[in-house]
């Protein structure tokens, strides 16, 4: 196994991988909050896709928007050879720490450049993942470009996994994220969050020249120990960045906490039920 992490410009798809915008205040802490609080919420999505594809020895996986590397770590634990690309240098550093926890830093290569730098030797990838949910008005064009480029590094017929929010009525967090949408106005079209359409993933696959080959739904509840963790976790997603550009951080945090209040239990924990969707597509 030889994990490769590459810094690369990726579209903003509702997480903190974008076209290198200015780092928000407290970026290192936000990165830690993502890795320690929020990222684990998507583990059921990662595992469901890996189970369906039989990810394991013989899998050569490329993770687009790999963030701090939890999805890569889970694939590597199954015996896969993994590579990851992301625009966020601080998240990549955490990914490198995770993937070299066994004390073998020579197993990780961090380079700058395009997607081609993620390729290892002559072996093409046979699985590509873009797990972080499509949920940003401006994300589709950039993500299409990245998927098209990544497909060119994969074997014909390779699996491409796209992740997205499930139906709004089955995602409790959708109501909370509308705070980000409302506060971001008039910058709403430049980022933030929007509800997913029923065919978003299929339309994205079609734009990228991919062939749909099945889909599934996965329960991904968002659970936090307390209100402070919930606010920090959701702010770490980057979905509130546009709101923070035009609204005082304290006001954003206050309105976010108010929106979360209905989901706080008597013991102080915050729990929101969500359903996520994934699409398996194939390179042509």
Topology as a string of helices (H) and strands (E): EHHEHEHEEHEHHEEHHHEE
CATH architecture type of one domain: 3-Layer(aba) Sandwich
Fill in the CATH topology of one domain. Rossmann fold
H/I helix tally: 10
The CATH class of one domain is identified as Alpha Beta
Main β sheet profile: 8 strands, mixed
Give start-end ranges of low-pLDDT stretches.
10-23, 104-112
> Helix fraction?
25-40%
Report the span from N to C terminus.
27 Å
Shape: globular
What is the CATH superfamily label of one domain? Answer: Vaccinia Virus protein VP39
Mean pLDDT: 85
Task: Look at the helices and sheets and give the structural class.
Answer: alpha/beta
CA radius of gyration: 18 Å
Number of strands: 10
What amount of the residues lies in strands? 15-25%
Question: Strands of the largest sheet, in order across it?
Answer: 4-1-3-2-5-6-10-7
GO biological process, one term: methylation
Organism: Streptomyces sirii
Keywords: Methyltransferase, Transferase
Protein name: Methyltransferase domain-containing protein
